[in-house]
Design a protein that fits this description.
Distance between the termini: 11 Å
Structural class: alpha/beta
Radius of gyration: 20 Å
Helix content: 25-40%
Largest sheet: 7 strands, mixed
CATH architecture of the largest domain: Alpha-Beta Complex
Number of helices: 11
Number of strands: 20
CATH topology of the largest domain: Quinone Oxidoreductase, Chain A, domain 1
CATH class of the largest domain: Alpha Beta
Low-confidence stretches: none
Strand content: 25-35%
Mean pLDDT: 96
Number of domains: 2
Shape: globular
Oligomer: single chain
Length: 343
């Protein structure tokens, strides 16, 4: 089969590799679409230590089941599916509690690190555990379905925040995850959503919802805007989709007393933390990692038309042109939200 293989730092080869065969608890998927994630961009440049070449990257994908493992009885050949990017064991304490994102034995698709290597979906075929599969509704395209992974990250963060109806949310960051958190917050009934970013073309993608206010921090003071929109009280919940020392400080300045800060991004490994302010203002700070079971809900929201991913599906290219797509994104000069590779 053909695959796009990362062979060195920012170097790729579109080449023939061995077609995988499913184990007894797996299925073979003929892939149709795979989105390039920001972590793939960072990883292929050698910045994370989690894309050690040679590796087939890609974990945001969709396709059609072509072969079933011997033990697989709840899926069928020809079924359109997507799959959880986290291969969880299903038997550890965390998995039994539904916290599959914290599985003690988890492996991430498309990752090669010192502990393991698991080839990903930038290829014609992939094998995945049947327990990680989700059927794609007829009204959802393969391009939309491959974006369920980042959407599920946003849905997970919003679910953990336990929002009340008509709450006010501030989202820090206009990258893919920030924009997916926005979609999730809107679906959760947020009355007012303020997204703070630095790229107008990304902020423009957030304006489809009437309750959304956008702030380009290069042009406006976000704090002034947020306070003007919240009667100078601050927002109920802050979602930090960046994760730096500055955004942590910003989050505390944006949140109301007794409010919540949900930490999603981790651009910085560590940061100074305003402990006294957190205590005396009774701020809840919670980490949100990946997703845990939100795929089915996200696909349902897509089917119901409550999630609009069309801004992310506008730029597609053949897998054979994947290297060019990566370099286009690495240059950072294009106004492209996502690149979806098609097989």
């Amino acid at each position: 089969m053909k695959a796009l293989v990362l062979t060195g730092k920012s170097q790729f080869q579109y080449t023939d590799v061995e077609k995988p065969s499913p184990a007894s608890d797996e299925v073979l998927i003929r892939l149709k679409a795979c989105s390039i994630c920001g972590s793939d961009i960072h990883g292929c440049q050698g910045g994370s230590g989690r894309r050690i070449p040679p590796i087939i990257m890609g974990h945001e994908a969709s396709g059609i089941i072509e072969q079933l493992g011997e033990q697989v009885t709840d899926h069928f050949i020809g079924e359109p599916v997507t799959f959880d990017s986290t291969e969880f064991c299903g038997s550890c304490d965390f998995c039994k509690k539904g916290m599959t994102n914290l599985c003690k034995n988890r492996k991430i698709t498309g990752v090669s690190c010192t502990d393991y290597k698991k080839d990903g979906a930038m290829a014609e075929y992939i094998t995945v555990k049947a327990r990680t599969l989700y059927s794609i509704p007829p009204s959802v395209s393969f391009e939309e379905a491959c974006l369920i992974e980042p959407l599920a990250v946003g849905l997970h963060a919003v679910r953990l925040s336990q929002p009340e109806k008509d709450y006010t949310a501030v989202i820090i960051g206009d990258g893919t995850i920030g924009l997916m958190v926005l979609q999730a917050a809107a679906a959760a009934g947020a009355g007012k959503i303020i997204i703070v970013g630095m790229q107008d073309y990304r902020l423009n993608a957030a304006k489809a919802f009437p309750q959304v206010y956008t702030v380009n921090s290069k042009k406006l003071n976000p704090l002034n805007t947020i306070m003007n929109l919240t009667n100078k009280e601050g927002a109920d919940i802050i979602y930090d989709a960046v994760g730096t020392g500055k955004t942590m400080q910003d989050a505390f300045s944006y949140v109301k007393n007794g409010g919540k800060i949900i930490c999603i991004g981790n651009a910085s490994v560590t940061t100074d933390f305003p402990l006294q302010e957190c205590i005396v203002r009774q701020i809840q700070v919670l980490g949100s990692y990946s997703s845990a079971g939100e795929y089915a809900y996200g696909l349902q929201l897509m089917e119901q038309g409550l999630i609009d991913l069309t801004p992310f599906t506008k730029y597609t290219c053949p897998l054979s042109q994947g290297e060019k797509a990566f370099h286009l994104l690495m240059e950072g000069k294009s106004e492209i939200l996502k690149v979806i590779l098609k097989m």
